[in-house]
Amino acid sequence: AASMATGHSNAGLSAWYLSMYLHKEAWGRLGFYGYDLQDQCGATNVFSLGSDEGCLGEVRGANYPNYAMN
Q1: How are beta strands 48-49 and 59-60 bridged, if at all?
Q2: Mean pLDDT of the chain
Q3: Rounded distance, CA 4 to CA 44, Å?
Q4: For a Cys staple, 60 with which of 2, 36, 47, 64, CB 3.0–4.6 Å?
Q5: Which stretches of 1-70 are DSSP H helices?
Q6: Range of the domain at 52
Q7: Residue 56 in this model has a pLDDT that exceeds 50
């Protein structure tokens, strides 16, 4: 619905991964070696917002986990 409403395919992908992320967050915050679930799931080219990590201005760029793992 998001990609049809905006005419942008990546918006639909972002909405899908957002819904998956919110669904997983609702069922539990497991944690994975110090990384959030947001770092483990989702497309690598979608910009994400780390709302539970302090400042709302922390907008992560594309491929966030890749440079965090080095």
Answers
A1: antiparallel
A2: 58
A3: 22
A4: 64
A5: 2-6, 9-27, 37-40, 64-68
A6: 2-68
A7: no
